[in-house]
From TrEMBL:
It comes from Streptomyces fuscus. This is NAD(P)H-binding protein. It comes from the Bacteria. Pfam families: NAD_binding_10. Coiled coil: none annotated. Residues 8-132 form the NAD(P)-binding domain.
């Protein structure tokens, strides 16, 4: 039996990883800012983090925040993992972090580099956006009378449960470095995805595609965040919406 620590283990992805690993009979520790006994703010580190990684074979690092702090969190986690003699650090990143000059993506790429230079055995998996993220985005945008979308931006969402399955599989294997990206089954226009969301949730909103400026927007329009050659996901956005809305 392997002892595994999952950071961000109460989040959208992390909790599913925890469920799968425990179902396989492994001892799993859940680290989050408010989840005892391993309630730790990774950005601050400290004795609580050292205790969380003590005796751990593998760390699955799912904790992240678009509001910043990922690099500090990674440095603290790496330091603690080295001291504890952790043999394997698994990290979930995002497809396109090296192609899209978007602040959050740059931070994720910086964390990848920290892990690669850590001296620890590591595995890095990049995935496209989860269905959940798009649903949250459209739900927020649909609060306005007109649903505004960035013009010309495609997407390739993937089912989070499938990513959790893959992460659990990687956590139980030997360190593999950067593995093949994982993307959803379809490259779709943002408008088509938004229309599916409106239809399934029973909302009526006109959609307006708005051209934006900047290098990040251009990179998204060009598909820098996509991996059509790695369309290994099975679940579609419509299937996700059907389950989410009890249909």
């Amino acid at each position: 039996m392997t002892t595994i620590l999952v950071t961000g283990g109460t989040g959208t992805l992390g909790r599913l990883v925890v469920e799968r690993l425990r179902a396989d009979g492994h001892e799993v520790r859940v680290l989050s800012r408010r989840n005892r006994p391993y309630a730790v703010d990774l950005r601050k580190g400290g004795a609580g983090l050292d205790a969380a990684v003590s005796g751990v074979d593998t760390v699955v690092h799912c904790a992240t925040s678009p509001r910043g702090g990922d690099e500090d969190a990674a440095r603290n986690l790496i330091t603690a993992a080295r001291k504890a003699g952790v043999g394997h650090l698994v990290y979930i990143s995002i497809v396109g972090v090296d192609r899209v000059p978007f602040g959050y993506y740059r931070s994720k790429l910086a964390v990848e580099r920290l892990i690669e230079d850590s001296g620890l055995g590591f595995t890095i998996l990049r995935a496209t956006q989860f269905h959940d993220l798009l649903a949250q985005l459209f739900g927020t945008l649909a609060k306005a009378p007109v649903l505004l979308l960035p013009a010309g931006v495609p997407d390739q969402p993937v089912e989070v449960a499938e990513v959790a399955d893959r992460l659990a599989e990687l956590a139980l294997a030997a360190p593999a470095g950067r593995v093949d990206d994982m993307a959803g089954p379809e490259v779709r226009s943002m408008e088509s995805l938004a229309r599916s969301f409106l239809r399934v949730t029973g909302r009526r909103r006109p959609i307006l595609n708005v051209p934006l400026a900047g290098k990040a927007y251009r990179a998204f329009r060009e598909g820098g965040h996509l991996a059509p050659e790695r369309a290994v996901g099975k679940g579609t956005f419509e299937e996700y919406l059907a389950v989410r809305n009890g249909r």
